[in-house]
């Protein structure tokens, strides 16, 4: 027996093709899903790969994470910023200005009325559940906004970022992708990545609400803001004027 057989094999010394196969088996699915999210599955392959893969994963995707104004997404942000391995990598926060609007309710209600007219019990139940889910989303939104929960969670995240980097970059945008890709809307049968939720009529753009949340969280966390981006062009001048008086002197804005 060769002397090196007395020691466990070093997984990182294996050929890339072998590692890819191991990751694919960890995933438990057919190819080529592993190629779409290799780092995600590399983290789950074994303890030996978890730490380096997690660091690379955070470095690539979480330096300035994008979040929606819902509990799932904001809590995920806090968990990432407080994570012992991922925590050092976030340097800022991008907050989505999109929120579900009343038109989404009108659309579901119209579908429900059609189901009642047609006597389609299965469709009635489906759209009734959608309507109830949307009402729960609106209730959660009120707790996050008016109740201050969103600011509390953003404050926790900024405290973590401040501890690692001393300052943070902030942004308000209408995002194409966020943490969880809409899973925070789990009360609805559809989530943000579906066609139904991509319809512009179903969303309100509320940039000033998102801006207020970030500004208040920065104040509470006493985290200096070293960079700011505002992705709603028609309101840019108004926002610049307000920020110049409300944020700490260290804050500067991107043109």
Structural features, described:
This protein is of the alpha/beta class. The protein has two domains: 1-61, no CATH class; 63-101 and 135-246, no CATH class. It contains eleven helices and six strands. The strands form two sheets. It has a four-stranded parallel β-sheet. The longest helix is centred in the middle third of the chain and has 25 residues, at 121-145.
List the helices and strands and how they pair.
Layout: H1 16-27, H2 33-36, H3 38-43, H4 47-61, E1 66-67, H5 71-82, E2 92-96, E3 98-100, H6 102-118, H7 121-145, H8 149-165, E4 168-173, H9 195-198, E5 203-205, H10 207-221, E6 225-230, H11 236-246
List keywords for this structure.
single chain; 255 residues; disordered C terminus; alpha/beta; 2 domains; two-stranded antiparallel sheet
Q: Topology as H/E string? A: HHHHEHEEHHHEHEHEH
Please state the structural category: alpha/beta
User: What composes the largest sheet?
Assistant: 4 strands, parallel
**How many individual helices?**
11
Query: What does the radius of gyration come to?
Result: 22 Å
Shape: flat
Instruction: Quote the average pLDDT.
Output: 75
The overall strand count is 6
Terminal CA distance reads 68 Å
Q: Share of helix among residues?
A: 40-55%
Poorly predicted regions: 190-198, 235-255
Q: Strands across the major sheet, in which order?
A: 1-2-4-6
How many independent structural domains? 2
Work out the strand percent.
Answer: 5-15%
């Amino acid at each position: 027996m060769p002397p090196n057989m007395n020691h466990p094999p070093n997984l990182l010394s294996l050929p890339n093709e072998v590692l890819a196969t191991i990751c694919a088996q960890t995933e438990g699915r057919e190819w080529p899903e592993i190629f779409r999210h290799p780092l995600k599955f590399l983290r789950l392959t074994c303890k030996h790969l978890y730490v380096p893969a997690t660091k690379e994963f955070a470095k690539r995707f979480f330096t300035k994470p994008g979040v929606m104004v819902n509990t799932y997404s904001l809590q995920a942000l806090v968990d990432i910023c407080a994570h012992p391995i991922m925590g050092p990598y976030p340097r800022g926060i991008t907050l989505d200005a999109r929120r579900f609007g009343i038109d989404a309710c009108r659309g579901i209600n119209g579908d429900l009325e059609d189901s009642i007219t047609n006597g389609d019990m299965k469709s009635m139940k489906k759209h009734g559940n959608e309507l109830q889910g949307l009402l729960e989303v609106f209730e959660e939104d009120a707790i996050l906004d008016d109740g201050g929960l969103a600011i509390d969670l953003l404050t926790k995240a900024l405290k973590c970022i401040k501890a690692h980097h001393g300052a943070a970059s902030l942004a308000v945008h209408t995002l194409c992708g966020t943490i969880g890709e809409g899973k925070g809307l789990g009360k609805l049968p559809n989530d943000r990545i579906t066609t139904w939720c991509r319809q512009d009529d179903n969303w309100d753009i509320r940039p000033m609400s998102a801006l207020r949340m970030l500004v208040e969280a920065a104040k509470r966390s006493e985290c200096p803001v070293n960079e700011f981006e505002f992705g709603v062009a028609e309101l840019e001048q108004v926002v610049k004027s307000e920020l110049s008086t409300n944020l700490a002197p260290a804050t500067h804005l991107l043109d």
